Amino acid sequence: METITGTAAGVPFTALPPTAATDSPAPLIVTWHMLDAPRTDAAFAAALPMAGVPAWRVHLGMPMCGARMVDGRLDAILELAHKDALMAFLAPFVHQAADELPAALVALRDQLPVDDEPIGILTHHLVHGASEWEFLSRLFKETADHSGAVWMSARDLLS
Predict the structure, then answer these.
(1) What pLDDT does residue 113 have?
(2) Which residues contact 103 (CB under 8 A, 6 or more apart)?
(3) 16/68 Cα distance (integer angstroms)
């Protein structure tokens, strides 16, 4: 399986192509890695290859992680967490990732043969806490009117 690495609108990514050869554009699934291991886009792609999925699996690099680590070192992130775990550490992840997604999607669609259908977003939580719901709510709100994002409710998808 060929792994593609690159950047999309400044966001690093690791992409895995559809497992079956196709002559037409394929669907797109986007993930963000965890803050604990596997904590980079490449490590998350290796840990969660989703083999057999007939879609592009693109794992985006989170802000302040991997190649985008503050000052290139883990200590700087830990200092932010000790300073203020919510506002100096977690909030920047949520805000920056949400801000970057629309442009990253446009760039991914320019770089990879993906279709223009809605994307899937995969999270790693069985149950979301307040910070995950805040991130998803802000993500959908901030990208609702962007040409690179079209969101549908689960009710609409399942009806």
Answers:
(1) 93
(2) 8, 9, 10, 148
(3) 21
pTM for the predicted model, two decimal places: 0.74
Work out the pLDDT band at 122, boundaries 50, 70, 90: low
- Are the CB atoms for 36 and 47 separated by under 8 Å? no
| Beta strands in 9-147, from DSSP E residues, in sequence order | 11-16, 28-32, 56-60, 120-122
Mean pLDDT, range 36-55, rounded to an integer: 85
Average confidence (pLDDT) over 8-16: 95
The residues with which 4 forms a beta bridge, in sequence order, are 15
Domains and CATH numbers, the chain: 4-158 (3.40.50)
11, with CB counted inside 10 A (0-12, 13-18, 19+), is buried
Chain CA centroid to CA 159, Å: 27
Taking the C-alpha atoms of residue 143 and residue 17, their distance in angstroms, rounded to an integer, is 25
Residue 133 pLDDT level (bands cut at 50, 70, 90) = confident
CA 94/CA 78 separation, integer angstroms: 17
First to last CA, the chain: 35
Nearest-angstrom CA–CA distance, 56 and 76: 33
